[in-house]
Amino acid sequence: MGLLHPGITGNRTLHEMLSRLRPEERAEAFAQPYLPEMVATTAKWAWTLEDDEGEFVASMAIMPDVNRRGWFVSYPGERIRSSAELRPLFRLYTIFRDSGAVYDELRAWVASDDERAVRFASWFGFEFDCGPATRLSPTGRDLSLWLWQGAKIAAPLGARPSRSF
Predict the structure, then answer these.
(1) What is the pLDDT of residue 81?
(2) How far apart are CA 65 and CA 105, in angstroms?
(3) What is the mean pLDDT of the chain?
(4) Closest Cα partner for 39 from 63, 4, 14?
(5) Deepest of 48, 54, 74, 79, by most Cβ within 10 A of its Cβ?
(6) What is the largest CA-CA distance in the chain?
(7) CA–centroid distance for 162 within its chain
(8) Euclidean distance between CA atoms 129 and 156, whole angstroms
């Protein structure tokens, strides 16, 4: 079933939470610790999922950018056994995202060589935009940019895109 807590740390310190991440994500977080600190203190939407024993499973947040754009951030824990465990987080995320109340576009950097992360991004409604950006991550991994864009207003039939610069 799992327990949800507001914020990215649940009932632990940031360092304790980061220590429970998957090895690759742990290395990334500890390579630039100010990034997760910024997420922990700045994100307006952030949740942590713990299992029935109170152990960290995963957390995610949306960091504000400019206008109605944000950055999606996830912290997968070592205890994730299947994507089914993440359903409570997925439901909270989709309700918030689909409300259209805050964001029209969300961006996410995804490790290009991590098939699990690519599946996760796709499952959360993101689409590949561009990449890879070579050695962009704190540990030098290649990252690709993925986007989610809210409902767009369709152009009238026969309308041509503007070419003004």
Answers:
(1) 86
(2) 10
(3) 90
(4) 63
(5) 48
(6) 59
(7) 33
(8) 25
Backbone angles phi, psi at 118, to 5 degrees: -65, -45
pLDDT given at position 101 = 86
Q: What is the structure's pLDDT at 156?
A: 47
Strand pairing report for 127-133 and 143-149: antiparallel
Residues in the chain: 165
**Distance (Å, rounded) from C-alpha 121 to C-alpha 108?**
8
Residues with Cβ within 8 Å of 118's Cβ and at least 6 positions away in sequence, in order, are 110, 112
| Distance, CA of 64 to CA of 158 (rounded, Å) | 36
Nearest to 9 by CA among 35, 36, 30: 36
What is the token pair recorded at 63?
């960091």
- Dihedral, CA atoms, 113, 132, 58, 15, nearest 10 degrees? 100
Q: Are 107 and 147 in contact (CB under 8 A)?
A: yes
Please state, as a whole number, how many other Cβ atoms lie within 10 Å of the Cβ of residue 41: 11
Using CA of residue 23, residue 26, residue 139, residue 131, what is the dihedral sign? Answer: positive
Full DSSP string of 20-42:
TB-HHHHHHHHHSTHHHHHHHHH
Residue 75 has φ and ψ, to the nearest 5°, of -130, 90
